[in-house]
Model the fold of this input.
Amino acid sequence: MTDVLVCIKRVPGSSGEVLLSEDGQSVDARHVGWTVSPHEEAAVELATQVAGATDGTVTVLTVGPADAVEQLRDALAVGCTDAVLVEADPTALGPRDVAAAIAGVVEARAVAGRSYDLVLLGNDAADTGDFQVPVRLAYALGRPVVTGIATCQVVGDTVEARGDGPDGPEVYELPLPAVVAVMEGGVAPRYPSVMGRMKAKKAPVELQVFEREAVGGGRVRLTLPPEQPSEVQVLGEGADAAPAVVDLFEKLGVVAIR
Amino acid sequence: MTRPADRSVLVLVETQAGGVREVSLEAVTFARRLAEQRGGQPVDAAVVGPLSDEVQADLLAQLGEHGVRTVRVAEHESLGTYGASAWAAALVEAAQSAASAAVVASGTPRGCEVLAHVAVRLDVAMAANAVEVVSADPLVVARQVVGGAVLEEMGLPDSVAVLAVAGHACDPEPAARATSPEVIRYTPTLSDADLVGRVARTEPAPADDSAALTSALVVVGAGRGVGSADGFDGVVELTERLGGALGVSRVVTSLGWRPHHEQVGQTGSRIAPDLYVACGISGAIQHWAGCQSAKTILAINTDPDAPMVTRAHYAVLGDLHEIVPAINEELARRAG
Done:
């Protein structure tokens, strides 16, 4: 029986235009809405697969604003069993703070008799892209860690994790308990069923408040890269543009000129 | 206490047959610019693991062109297989012996993973996806966040700055003055805990992995506009005629139309081909993050206001299912 903790983050959607808040300290997501990072959707799926294969449980956790309960409910709807929200202002926190908050929950629950054999996280958040919370968490807990993982399974007291290295697929074997950071691509996240949604509404969400002294993330300010004026050259419309396109290919040297 | 001018900028260099990986030369260039702005600090390189004589000769020539002072080679019987913890232990030891004020690596998955371990071990902050130095003292860097749609200026006030350089943010550029780097071999002290989490085994790369996509000179991209899993014949044919690789948007892989290893974007491959032909792709942040380094972009799209069209160098407006077959026919006609 493998009890898994999977950590997610509420982030702005990536389908539309990004705006910044007036103070330049945060992203204004009013036009794009909120979601979780794609890597974390994969982590949630892997968590439910690992737990399902061993009759274990999955707790989903987030450190973020009260509204992040929406993302926790989404994860509960696809198979997580319970949830923890550590409420905090995300703009005040850096990766060290987030890792410390997660470690605090893991340690407190272990004392209370609930130990997580495996902690899964996304490799890097879609908004801040810090690439370090999983590693910082692992050191805080004194556990081994591997990042960039596409699939994993628990075999006895070991987690076998597979990812893409620079020269091809690599397999890692870590003794449990361990921390694994997941990248999108190895598993397809499932869609919630109606039954799943109903269950998610009733599932327990434990509320905590972030009470540590925050180190912060060193943010001075956010800026938008200057939008370059469009210099697009329209080669034509419809199929009639094909000769102009092939002329361009020849000019660029990507096809041989005959 | 080491004087600031005597402290160095240390770069983790990843090797391959033929010397230094291209992305590591980007990191070396970034490191040298940082060092110059900090009063002309020297740049040192760190290599972890066995280094053959042949690779070493190529590597020294390349790093010499880039103005590197020393190459610190960590040798240990356990460094033959990759493990982030062991690599980080070796890198921290190199940083301490070189009195480094900054540790830099390319923002590859491996570079980021090792640097995260380094940052924890040194108890300092780490900036991922750095693109430029905003201020040298106090150190502030600009880094890509939200898939590159936003830049964050981040302060790194700690005694050692740990920085991963965003891919393609900085073209490799040789130094004004070449050097003859000194090779310093050392055996790092590795604990048992450092050796947990190493690669247990590797598997042969499948024929259809993403390596072909990231190295292709021409990439033909396909997005939601293709319409269905059955709609890819034209773009696949165009890909083959151009000797390129097929890349798709996240929508396409999420819908199960094509496999994930073909995905270009923030959570897929980041490409920098000579030509990117984007067919039926709107160019949302997720995708733009992966394709913005293409040298030339041709967009084929029905919507003249789509971000992919307005940001492209060239565009053809209309239905890709009419345009792409016409291009294929024209290519066939000219090929005789």
Notes: Residues 13 and 149 of chain A are 23 Å apart (CA to CA). The longest strand of chain A covers residues 145-155. Chain A touches chain B through 84 residues (CB under 8 Å). Chain A has a mean pLDDT of 94.
